[in-house]
Write a structure and sequence with these properties.
0% of the residues lie in helices and 56% in strands. The protein has 287 residues and is mainly beta. A hairpin with a 5-residue loop joins β15 and β16. It is a multi-pass membrane protein.
């Protein structure tokens, strides 16, 4: 898992339990953290804080100090706290400016205060493994979807359950947010747009029936901006126009897309095993 701390610094969590920090400008490893042999499954970064989630459901909070002068060096890696967050593997680890969110196959989510590195709230309403999570920073809300087809909306401040929505399709629904919509990429390959404020369905954009995707295929979803979303299913990358509610481009990369990362508002990074592709968004004018 690669994440950016500064423009030229990445952090990689490894299957042998180590965490590596590398400088992209120098193409050089500049720091290694070894605390456990349990594999790292997620990495999240906020400022100088690095969070790592392991296969056993534990989370470690690290403080990474970098040199101010070039070449950039790692001055220290300090373990601030380590917690057994979940009884089963962690499916998602996300952060806002002050809060970290973990979701698990044990049906729960947990909120951690990034200042104290302590548990803030435990969220329990799902009846199945949590398949997707997204944070709406504008409204301080959190959306989570489980494999039973239920989406929950939570307050990031109080941990209160605000409302639930039923996708009415079992399987994984992947979530993302724009300023107006909650987006859901469902197991049947369709894209659902909900009004974030009241949870009503605004629109469904379905692919052609002949091109419906495998329910169990590896999939991803991100919103690049308020008008454009990108989905991935196996090796296929699809761009969706949210304003006109239309599929505008589909690309086959020829390899399974493990992960999507937004690169600004108009490009996406696709991680395929140990290869990363940059794909620019298409310029399409729909009249």
């Amino acid at each position: 898992k690669l994440h950016e701390i500064r423009q030229s610094i990445t952090v990689c969590g490894c299957s042998d339990g180590s965490v590596e920090i590398a400088c992209l400008e120098r193409n050089k490893l500049i720091g290694v953290y070894i605390q456990s042999s349990v594999g790292v499954v997620h990495v999240a970064i906020v400022g100088s804080r690095v969070l790592i989630a392991r296969l056993d459901g534990s989370i470690e909070f690290l403080e990474v100090t970098l040199s101010s002068e070039r070449p950039i060096r790692v001055l220290s890696i300090t373990l601030l706290n380590a917690v057994r967050a979940h009884q089963k593997p962690i499916s998602f680890l996300l952060t806002s400016s002050l809060t970290a969110v973990s979701a698990s196959y044990d049906h729960t989510l947990k909120l951690f205060d990034l200042r104290s590195c302590q548990l803030q709230s435990m969220l329990h309403a799902h009846s199945g493994p949590i398949a997707s999570v997204c944070i709406d920073n504008a409204d301080n809300t959190l959306f989570s979807a489980c494999e039973e087809g239920i989406i929950c909306c939570w307050s990031m401040i109080s941990g209160e359950l605000l409302r639930t929505m039923n996708v009415k399709i079992t399987g994984r629904t992947y979530l993302s947010c724009t300023s107006e919509y909650l987006l859901g990429y469902t197991a049947d390959g369709g894209l659902i747009l909900w009004n974030k404020n009241d949870g009503t369905i605004t629109n469904r954009i379905a692919q052609h029936p002949a091109k419906l995707e495998n329910t169990f295929a590896a999939r991803n979803l991100i919103a690049l901006n308020n008008e454009l979303a990108v989905t991935a299913c196996e090796s296929a990358l699809t761009f969706w126009d949210l304003e006109h509610k239309a599929l505008i481009r589909k690309i086959d990369l020829g390899c399974v897309i493990d992960r999507l990362l937004a690169l600004g508002d108009h490009a996406v990074l696709c991680q395929c095993s140990n290869t990363i592709y940059r794909i620019n968004s298409p310029i399409v004018r729909i009249s």
